[in-house]
Structures are given as C-alpha cells and as structure tokens.
Design brief:
Strand content: 15-25%
Mean pLDDT: 92
Largest sheet: 7 strands, mixed
Oligomer: single chain
Radius of gyration: 22 Å
Structural class: alpha/beta
Low-confidence stretches: 524-533
Shape: globular
Number of strands: 19
Bound molecules: flavin-adenine dinucleotide
Distance between the termini: 27 Å
C-alpha cells in the first residue's frame, strides 16, 4: 500500500503520531522499525509533482491575526505546509545545525522574554544530527562556515555556486566576509538511492520532481509502505486527545475527511508532530473536566512563546552575460554567518544572510536578479501565542488566533541585517535595490516555541524528552518544543530532536534492541550509489 492511504482505521496502536512532516515522518519510521505499531494521522494529502505552495495553500485553513488597526482578520498562516511530508514537501532544503549559542541564548534575549535556555546543549544533540545527516544526506562544505559547530565529515560535496551565488560570494569576500556554500538536504551526487539534483529550477515552494530533495515522507514513510506496523492515514485530522485519567491519555479522536466519519484510536503513546501551532491547538482543544484549560495547560503556558523568524528579502539587478557553464543552482547556494555573533548587532546577536534566488533565474536584457534573505531568531515572548477562537470551523473545531508582535529589539536586529545585506548587493554592483517584506508576522514558515521545553511546569509545557508535564504518555516533537527559535532554519534541529525523543519512547515501551542507539534503525547507510552496508 503506498504511503498516504489508509486501509484500516485501527482501534488500537502502540503510538499515534499526529502529522507526517519533518518530525512526524522520522519518528514514525524509527518507531515502526523498532517493531512498534504506528498510526500516522495526516490531515493533508500527498502532493503531486508540479504542486507548489501557490497551488496548494488556498485549500489550507487560515487563522485569525491582528491587522495594523488591531482588528482580527482571517489571513493568518498556521502551517509550514498542510500536506503529506509537511513543510519538507516544498521546502528549500536549507539544512543548518543550530549553533552553540542557540541553546543558551539568555545573554542575547530581552529582559521581558521567556527563558530561552534549552534543556540540553549542542553537544547532546550532535550525535542525533549526525544520524539524521547520514539518513538524509546533506551537501555541504567542511570548515568554511566560520561558526560551524562540530560535526561528522560531510557525506556529500557542496553544490556549486549559482551564477548569482558566485557574484554574491565574490562581493562578500571583497567586504571581508566569509561566504560558504549553503548546506542543503538536496543531493549533489546520488545518495541513499536518490538521484543528484539536476538544477531544474525553482525548488523552494515546489515539490521536487526527481526526489533529490529530502522530502520527509518520500524518505522515511514511502520505503515502509509494505510494512504492517505502519499505517499512514492522509485526509485524517486529529481533533483532540482523549484522557483516561488526569495524567494518562487514552487515545486520539480523529476525523476521516474522505467520509466525515469520526474515529477513536487508542494508543499507548501519542506524539504531536503537527507543527508548533497545530500541536498547541490540539492540546488546547483537548480540554476536559480533568484538564479544563487544555492538556498540559495547568499554568496557561500552551501556545505561549510562539516564535517565528524575523525575516526580509533584498534584491537588485546586475548586468550579466548568459553563461551556460554556471548552473542555475538550487534556491540557495551561498550563505553568510558573519553577523550571527556580531557585537554591533542589537543585543550582539545578528542572524543569517543567504542567497534566496527568485523563481526566474534567467538573464533578461542583460540583467540578472540577485536576492538575499535575512533571517534572525525572535524573542520568545509570553504575549506572543496561539489561542482558540470562539468560532468553529467546518469540522466543528475551534479556529485559531495568532497573537504576535515583533519585539522592538528584533525589528532593530532585522534592520541591521538588512543594511549588511544591502552592502553585499551594492558591492556586487546591483542597481534597483529594493526590499520585499516576507510577511512573517501572519505566520512564518518557521514555527517554534508553543510547547516549550523546560523542567518547571510553571514556565514550560514539556520536559527535556518532549513529554507533556501533566501527562504520562503525550510527547511534542515538532518546533513547538523549542524554547528559543535559533538563528538558522529549524528543520534539521526539529528532526534531530525528534529522533532523539524516539529513543526515549522506544525505551519506555521496551521496544527494539538498541533503544538508546543513535543509528536510525531503518536506514541502511549508503556507501556509494546502490551499495548499502
Ligand atoms: C516554502 C517553504 C520553504 C521552507 N524552507 C525551509 C528550509 O529551507 N530549511 C528549513 O529548515 N525549513 C524550511 N521550511 C520550514 C520547514 O518546512 C519546517 O520547519 C518543518 O517542516 C517543520 O516540521 P514539523 O515537523 O514541525 O511540521 P510540518 O513539517 O509542518 O509537519 C506537520 C504536519 O502535521 C499535519 N497536521 C497538522 N495538524 C494536524 C492534525 N490536526 N491532524 C493531522 N495532521 C495534522 C500537517 O498537515 C503537516 O503535514 C520551509 C517551509 C516552507 C513552507
């Protein structure tokens, strides 16, 4: 049976995973390989080749957000993507590891922010990053990123710079910066049974037509389509978690969107991997007399600390002769971390600048468009949150409200980064430089912090293993776990942490032989194309 359909509607499983995206796919696959019976509920459908953010997004549920005038408008985006594979089905593949500072950023956060300290450090997550990297393959350079954390040697060589990327790198070098190839979960050479990218065009916001990009469903769920233990149910929306007692969840109530029938599947463990906004929503919608404010919400922390990435784009045009020798390249081929720890940036923490090529990379009338993306962590603010609206949607579930305001310090940091990016563009000789706002305030594609990890239930929702404080058997493994959003793209960290948590769930359920192993059980390690050890 192909991943993304459901033959049965199981009444009882070991683990019910809600969401089939970056975190859900990896943890479901890992737990199935440990012999556990898994049901993955996915509200979206399997995207097809040719699908894109633009073609798919109109079908996705919106959330309320504040307009400039303070009114609530239904234009919020509570998704990275609502589809089998989640955001990874259309992501750009940018695959950074968090930096040491991202795990203990309190010297760099505002006094009125929530505590940004993670319950562990980079060194504790490193082996899980390495394991995910072995499974997905990351094309990257070694030793060029000036603040690169320790890691196993790269498996794949970096992608060459695109035409625009090469210009940006040269310009950065002239400014004393240290450009390096953007690390990408896009094959630069064949790896893991997937082909090398042939640079066919826009990969960001698009489904990869070849499988060179590491879509989580293609990588982790499809190979298990024949495995009895794993059931992947698309168009299946988790509505709420049902409690057996004050501290124990009994199962998940979900809706089959094909026939509008409701089901209850009992599970020993429930894993929330629905994205930081949707997982918090499910906890809030699971309120009952034993948890009147929602599951894990005794101290009104579920949904708080919602953080995105503050971000903006700068672009310009350079005179350029068409040169067929230089590849169009994936979406991003060159990055700069020079301002990450820049003492001149407000609070001494800058962020990331990288090439973000437009969809059209052709030379028109002798001009090539060059574009940079500036990205920085935002403060985890208690007032930035998601909450339930009084209004309900077509399935009878409470709609969502995204309450979010950018902290003035983060606005200042973003302005600082934008000025630095503009310098790079000017050095390239770009004209017609303009800024395009990303609109992250209505729901960035980077979602974090709503079920923050920590040891004190008064200011966190889950413990260091992602287990919801008030319950014994409910885990959050998506970006909701993040106490601090970090200054780089989050997916690699989400997956490394989900894999780490899978080992804890395996241990608790007494499954598998090597419950604490950092080797993903299901992935034979490719040595070269077609050969596995
Ligand atoms: C265009 C685009 C480009 C991006 N580029 C990058 C990049 O280059 N690098 C990077 O690191 N990140 C990137 N991201 C962000 C990345 O996609 C997310 O960080 C990542 O997918 C989040 O993983 P997750 O497991 O938390 O959630 P998702 O991957 O979003 O998965 C959550 C899944 O849960 C499902 N779901 C939600 N609610 C329910 C429910 N009630 N019942 C059942 N299922 C439910 C959703 O449909 C979804 O499939 C990009 C995102 C987009 C959209």
């Amino acid at each position: 049976m192909p991943a993304g359909t459901v033959a049965r509607e199981p009444d009882q499983v070991d683990v019910c995973v809600i969401g089939s995206g970056a975190s859900g796919a990896i943890i479901a696959s890992e737990l199935a390989h440990r012999g556990l019976r898994i049901l993955v509920l996915e509200t979206g459908i399997a995207p097809r080749t040719g699908d894109s953010l633009r073609s798919m997004e109109p079908a996705w549920e919106t959330a309320f957000v504040r307009t400039g005038g303070g009114r609530l408008a239904q234009t919020g985006r509570p998704w990275s993507a609502c589809a089998l594979g989640g955001g990874t089905s259309i992501f750009a593949g940018i695959t950074f590891r968090f930096r040491e500072v991202d795990f203990h950023a309190s010297p760099h956060t505002a006094d009125d922010a929530l505590d940004p300290t993670w319950p562990f450090r980079y060194a504790d997550l490193r082996k899980w990053y390495d394991a995910v990297e072995r499974a997905i393959g990351v094309a990257r350079a070694h030793g060029m990123d000036p603040i690169e954390p320790d890691a196993a040697p790269p498996r794949l060589p970096p992608h060459p710079y695109s035409a625009a990327g090469a210009l940006l790198a040269e310009s950065g070098l002239r400014l004393g910066m240290r450009p390096f190839p953007t690390p990408l979960a896009i094959n630069s050479i064949p790896y893991g049974g997937r082909p090398a990218c042939h640079r066919c065009g826009p990969c960001n916001e698009h489904v990869c037509p070849t499988g060179a990009k590491a879509d989580a469903a293609g990588l982790f769920l499809s190979p298990l389509a024949h495995v009895e233990e794993l059931e992947v149910a698309t168009m299946s929306r988790a509505l709420r978690i049902i409690l057996a007692s004050a501290h124990q969840a009994a199962g998940v109530e979900w809706l089959n969107l094909r026939n509008h029938r409701r089901h209850v599947t009992r599970a020993k463990v429930i894993v929330l991997a629905a994205n930081a906004i949707q997982s918090a929503a499910i906890l809030l919608r699971s309120a009952d007399r034993r948890a009147p404010r929602g599951l894990g919400n005794r101290y009104d922390m579920v949904g708080r600390g919602l953080s995105f990435k503050v971000s903006t784009y700068l672009s310009g045009y350079v005179r350029h002769r068409r040169n067929p020798g230089i590849p169009a390249g994936p979406h991003s081929t060159v990055s700069f971390t020079d301002h990450y720890l820049d003492a001149e940036a407000p609070l001494g923490l800058g962020g990331l600048i990288y090439e973000a090529s437009p969809e059209d990379r052709d030379v028109h009338q002798g001009k090539l468009k060059v574009r940079l993306h500036c990205l920085a962590a935002d403060q985890p603010m208690p007032g930035n949150r998601i909450r339930l609206a009084a209004a309900v949607d077509a399935d009878g579930a409470a709609r969502l409200v995204i309450e979010y305001r950018t902290h003035t310090i983060d606005t200042a940091r973003l302005r600082y980064l934008a000025r630095r990016a503009e310098q790079v563009l000017r050095e390239v000789g770009a004209t017609e430089i303009s800024e395009q706002e990303s609109g992250y305030q209505a729901g960035s594609r980077h979602l974090h912090g709503t079920c923050r990890a920590g040891s004190d239930p008064r200011n966190s929702v889950v413990d260091s293993w992602g287990r919801v404080h008030d319950t014994d058997n409910v885990y959050v493994v998506d970006g909701g776990f993040f106490p601090y959003a970090g200054g780089v793209n989050p997916t690699f960290t989400i997956q490394a942490n989900a894999l780490r948590i899978s080992a804890e769930i395996t241990r608790r359920l007494g499954a598998g032989s090597a419950a604490n192993s950092a080797e993903p059980a299901m992935h034979p390690m490719p040595t070269e194309e077609g050969h596995h050890v």
